[in-house]
Amino acid sequence: AQKVTQAQTEISVVEKEDVTLDCVYETRDTTYYLFWYKQPPSGELVFLIRRNSFDEQNEISGRYSWNFQKSTSSFNFTITASQVVDSAVYFCALSETQGGSEKLVFGKGTKLTVNP
Amino acid sequence: DAGVTQSPTHLIKTRGQHVTLRCSPISGHKSVSWYQQVLGQGPQFIFQYYEKEERGRGNFPDRFSARQFPNYSSELNVNALLLGDSALYLCASSITGTYGYTFGSGTRLTVV
User: Fold this and answer.
1) Integer Cα distance of B67 and B52 in angstroms
2) How far is CA B20 from the centre of its chain?
3) A51 in helix, strand or coil?
4) How far is Cα A116 from Cα B54, in angstroms, rounded to an integer?
5) How many beta carbons lie within 10 A of that of residue A73, not counting itself?
6) Looking at beta carbons, which residues of chain B come within 8 Å of A42?
7) Would you report the helix, strand and coil content of chain A in percent, each value rounded to 5?
8) Residues of chain B found within 8 Å of residue A106, distances taken between Cβ atoms
9) What is the pLDDT of residues A11-59, one digit of tens each?
10) Is B41 in contact with A108 (Cβ distance < 8 A)?
11) Cβ neighbours, 10 Å, residue B54
12) d(Cα A59, Cα A53) in Å, to the nearest integer?
C-alpha cells in the first residue's frame, strides 16, 4: 500500500530563514504523482505543486522549490527567506490509482511556524 | 470562477443523529472525492465519484455513504454519528484526478 511519511511534526523558524520540509513515500506503482498542499488555519487545502514520477527535474516557483529524488523516494519542499504568512500545516501526498479509483494518500503534515 | 463550495461550514450534532454534507465542484469537474481529516492528522480518503458512479471507497464503515447528482454536486451522509466522527470533512473536485485536486474549505463537524 502507498505510504507517505513526514517525519517533522513541527518546525519553528525566524523570518527570513530557509526551511526544508521532508517527505518520503512508498509505492509499488511505476507511474504516480506527488503533491504538496498548504493548509492555513482556515482549513482549506491550497494546492502548491504536482510532480509526475517521470519528471525528476527540480522546480522553483518564487521562494518555493522542490527536490524530487526517485532513488531515495523523497520529495522535499524548501521555502527560501520564510515569511510569517508561510505559517501553516504542509501536507505531502501521493496519488494511488486502483481499480478505476483515484485517491490521494497524505502524510500527517508538518506544522510550520514562522516567527517575526 | 467559483471554487469548490461546501455547506454547511460548521455543524454540531448529537451522538446517534444523521448528517448530510454537501459539495459543489468546480464547473467542468466531473470527479468529486470526500476526505475526513481528524485533528492533527492528514486527510483520509472516504469516497470518489466520477460521472455519478462510485469509483472508490476508503476504509470507512457502512454508516458513511455518498452520492453524486447529474450536475456533479455531491452529498456525504453519515448515520448513527459517533464522537469519533468529529472531524473536518473536505470535498475535492478534479477533472480526472491526475491533473490535481482542488479542495473546498471543508465542513467542520462536531459530535457531542
Assistant:
1) 7
2) 10
3) strand
4) 47
5) 17
6) 105
7) 5, 55, 40
8) 42-44
9) 999 999 999 999 999 998 888 999 999 999 888 899 999 898 888 888 8
10) yes
11) 15
12) 13
